[in-house]
């Protein structure tokens, strides 16, 4: 065995002074094979290194072959591969890690290797990154021709092919230095677990010097609609549906529809292509039985076994219900002078401030506004892992200059909004309103302010009104990204009597827009209806 540190040698070096062994013809060099055929032949020459089938050769199923054909066979007029990004999302235990390791080796020392190529595997943390490296190393050590030409350095999870000069490196999101790459092949394992998109962006933007770079993402889905994994899945669906024409992007999406019966074996088989093959059906049945009986396990079952982008079971609103209320646009001009109710969640100094108006008589239209301090906005974006700068540039976020929230700017904007719409009431949390109230009084701004507690007594009915509006179709929004992000983050907590409130401490991050919208709906529900008078002869009827 060779060394494992600096100056390491190939695993099985030739005897000193000996002649190189005669190279045997490899299965992928057979004449007449397509490009994907060479990749398949390479993978099927590799051994399985663990489990009950250890020692046997890999055998790709037809669904795996179809994915490889879709990635490697389409070529341009100049003969170069068309696909540059491939997304494969499916439930766990369907052979993702083995396939990822085989593809990485194919680009390191197999038929897809290029001179001095740079192959990288990316993962959320060091432990996850080590899994793929360990699988690749085990294969190399079991294949004599690979062992003879591959340098292994365990200390930094680095491989080098002595013939092509290509290198492989396992990376995690914890790696400090992520620049200076020139990637030819990238495989990102479980991208949904990445804390942010920085490593993905650095790697995918490092491929410009390569003629045929390829990025393969293999992961379950993320419950966060703003996560880079969710972004790729949404883009992939649009490509598959023909909404976007992008032949450079291929998506293979195995996921159970949200409306499907999660306990049906038909549902399981539709999204688990290996079920009953090398993915155990008995284990699936056992996990489903436990998840059905133990509610706390249902979320994990749906996400990991059905590949559904589900949130915690205590989420305020299910993602599917929120998206079901989305319309293409809300015409703010058409709402001028129309009655509405508002909620204002004011930050203390540096956090998000949210105002949301609810127009129940106009199909439940929702108009939101958000503010953040303008200074160090990118630092805040990095901290919260959301694109504040892009939202500002797109007009979804107002960012007055300063390191703390500019309450005067907020007050002036509130006055403009109140003058434009028929604001019946504006619910607010008294805890942060003292300074703003003084500014409003000093500026002569008169608003129909209504104090609204954030405990169970006030927020319980507000959440009920909000949910009722959602479920009955009496709320319409235009997919405002900041509001959608806040809704996705919002979780509820209950007291022993079953009363609920929003819990900012348990939320993943900002929920200010969700708080403001819930208060707006609750204030409207609490407002007595205006009586309608009708006259019938000498009598007055009240409807």
List the helices and strands and how they pair.
Elements: H1 35-43, H2 62-72, E1 85-89, H3 96-108, E2 118-123, H4 126-142, H5 144-149, E3 150-153, E4 158-161, E5 167-172, E6 185-189, H6 198-204, E7 214-219, H7 228-240, E8 249-253, H8 265-271, H9 281-293, H10 298-305, H11 319-324, E9 339-345, E10 353-359, E11 365-371, H12 377-384, H13 388-393, H14 407-420, E12 422-428, H15 434-443, E13 449-451, H16 456-471, H17 481-489, E14 492-494, E15 500-502, H18 512-526, E16 533-536, E17 539-542
Parallel strand pairs: 1-7, 1-8, 2-5, 2-6, 6-7, 9-12, 12-13
Antiparallel strand pairs: 3-4, 4-5, 9-10, 10-11, 14-15, 16-17
Helix pairs in contact: 1-2, 3-4, 9-10, 14-15, 16-18
Describe the structure.
Helix content is 35%, strand content 16%. The chain is built from 18 helices and 17 strands. The longest helix is centred in the first third of the chain and has 17 residues, at 126-142. An eight-stranded mixed β-sheet has the order 3-4-5-2-6-7-1-8, sandwiched between helices. The protein is elongated and about 105 Å long. The chain has three domains: 83-248, 3-Layer(aba) Sandwich (Rossmann fold); 255-310, no CATH class; 322-526, Nucleotidyltransferase, domain 5 (2-Layer Sandwich). Helix 14 packs across helix 15. With 543 residues, the chain is of the alpha/beta class. It has helices spanning 35-43, 62-72, 96-108, 126-142, 144-149, 198-204, 228-240, 265-271, 281-293, 298-305, 319-324, 377-384, 388-393, 407-420, 434-443, 456-471, 481-489, 512-526; strands spanning 85-89, 118-123, 150-153, 158-161, 167-172, 185-189, 214-219, 249-253, 339-345, 353-359, 365-371, 422-428, 449-451, 492-494, 500-502, 533-536, 539-542. The model is unreliable at 1-7 (pLDDT under 50).
């Amino acid at each position: 065995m060779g060394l494992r540190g600096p100056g390491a040698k190939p695993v099985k070096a030739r005897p000193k002074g000996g002649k190189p062994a005669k190279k045997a013809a490899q299965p992928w060099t057979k004449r007449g094979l397509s490009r994907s055929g060479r990749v398949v032949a390479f993978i099927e020459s590799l051994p399985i290194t663990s489990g009950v089938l250890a020692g046997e050769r890999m055998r790709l199923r037809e669904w795996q072959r179809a994915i490889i054909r879709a990635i490697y066979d389409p070529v341009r007029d100049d003969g170069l591969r068309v696909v540059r990004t491939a997304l494969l999302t499916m439930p766990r235990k369907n052979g993702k890690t083995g396939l990822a390791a085989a593809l990485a080796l194919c680009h390191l020392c197999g038929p897809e290797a290029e001179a001095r190529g740079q192959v990288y595997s990316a993962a959320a943390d060091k432990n996850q990154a080590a899994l793929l490296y360990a699988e690749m190393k085990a294969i190399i050590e079991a294949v004599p021709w690979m062992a003879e030409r591959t340098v292994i350095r365990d200390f930094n999870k680095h491989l080098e092919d002595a013939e092509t000069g290509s290198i492989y490196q396992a990376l995690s999101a914890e790696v400090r230095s992520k620049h200076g790459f020139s990637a030819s092949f990238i495989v990102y394992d479980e991208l949904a677990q990445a804390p942010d998109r920085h490593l993905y962006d650095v790697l995918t933007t490092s491929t410009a010097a390569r003629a045929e770079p390829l990025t393969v993402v293999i992961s379950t889905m993320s419950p966060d609609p703003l996560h880079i994994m969710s972004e790729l899945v949404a883009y992939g669906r649009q490509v598959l549906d023909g909404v976007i024409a992008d032949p450079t992007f291929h998506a293979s999406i195995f996921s159970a529809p949200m409306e499907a019966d999660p306990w049906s074996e038909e549902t399981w088989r539709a999204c688990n292509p290996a079920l009953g093959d090398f993915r155990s059906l008995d284990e699936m049945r056992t996990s489903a039985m436990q998840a059905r009986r133990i509610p706390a396990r249902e979320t994990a079952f749906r996400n990991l076994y059905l590949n559904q982008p589900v949130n915690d079971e205590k989420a305020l609103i299910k993602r599917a219900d929120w998206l079901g209320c989305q319309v293409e646009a809300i015409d703010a001009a058409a709402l001028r002078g129309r009655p509405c109710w508002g909620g204002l969640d004011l930050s203390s100094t540096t956090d998000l401030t949210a105002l949301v108006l609810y127009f129940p008589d106009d199909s439940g239209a929702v108009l939101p506004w958000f503010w953040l301090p303008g200074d160090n906005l990118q630092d805040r974006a990095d901290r919260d892992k959301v694109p504040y700068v892009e939202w500002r540039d797109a007009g979804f976020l107002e960012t007055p200059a300063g390191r703390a929230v500019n309450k005067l700017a907020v007050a002036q904007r509130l006055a403009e909004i109140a003058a434009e719409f028929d604001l019946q009431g504006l619910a607010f949390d008294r805890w942060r309103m003292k300074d703003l109230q003084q500014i409003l009084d000093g500026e002569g701004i008169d608003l129909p302010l209504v104090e609204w507690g954030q405990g169970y007594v006030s927020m319980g009915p507000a959440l009920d009104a909000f949910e009722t509006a959602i479920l009955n179709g009496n709320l319409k929004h235009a997919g405002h990204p900041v509001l959608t992000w806040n809704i996705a983050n919002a979780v509820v907590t209950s007291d022993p009597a079953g009363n609920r409130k929003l819990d900012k401490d348990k939320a993943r991050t900002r929920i200010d827009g969700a708080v403001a919208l819930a208060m707006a709906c609750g204030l409207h529900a609490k407002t007595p209806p205006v009586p309608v008078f009708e006259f019938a002869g000498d009598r007055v009827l009240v409807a």
